[in-house]
Write a structure and sequence with these properties.
Number of helices: 2
Mean pLDDT: 94
Distance between the termini: 26 Å
Strand order of the largest sheet: 3-4-5-9-8-7-6
Low-confidence stretches: none
Radius of gyration: 14 Å
Largest sheet: 7 strands, antiparallel
């Protein structure tokens, strides 16, 4: 497996070549800058947009959104990764069609929010390690 570089505007990160870069769905989500998938069970969306909030307020908002959608928060903590402060959230969401985990990292830097959201029905530690490695390589230029 080789690492590839994704770059869009001032955002860059490395991902393994076992992941596919999909066409970002900017029609229904104009803030989407990247969509990556691995198999049928893993979908990663990256969004970025201006914000006036901070990590503490956004953490509460994000948790409420997941709970309001019927999800369960398994972990929600402040952390440091990629030399930046971030929120790391792990939740579980059940729908009539599928049950999946959601792994999210949120960064707020210079008035912009950057959200990496992995939705996965693959509960292997390999997927989470690949995702965490991708996040660790995140850079703003």
């Amino acid at each position: 497996m080789d690492a590839k570089l994704f770059q869009s505007g001032n955002v860059s990160f490395e991902y393994l070549d076992t992941w596919d870069v999909e066409k970002a769905d900017t029609f229904s989500n104009p803030d989407c800058i990247a969509t990556l998938s691995k198999g049928e069970s893993n979908l990663l969306n990256v969004v970025a947009f201006p914000t006036q909030t901070d990590l503490e307020n956004y953490k509460e908002f994000m948790e409420n959104c997941i709970v309001d959608d019927g999800g369960v928060i398994l972990e929600s903590v402040f952390t440091e990764i990629a030399s930046m402060d971030a929120i790391r959230l792990h939740g579980n969401i059940k729908t009539p069609d599928i049950t999946f985990d959601i792994h999210t990292y949120v960064f707020i830097e210079d008035g912009n929010i950057y959200i990496f959201e992995l939705r996965t029905a693959d509960y292997s530690s390999e997927i989470i390690k690949e995702y965490d490695d991708l996040i660790s390589s995140f850079k703003l230029e």
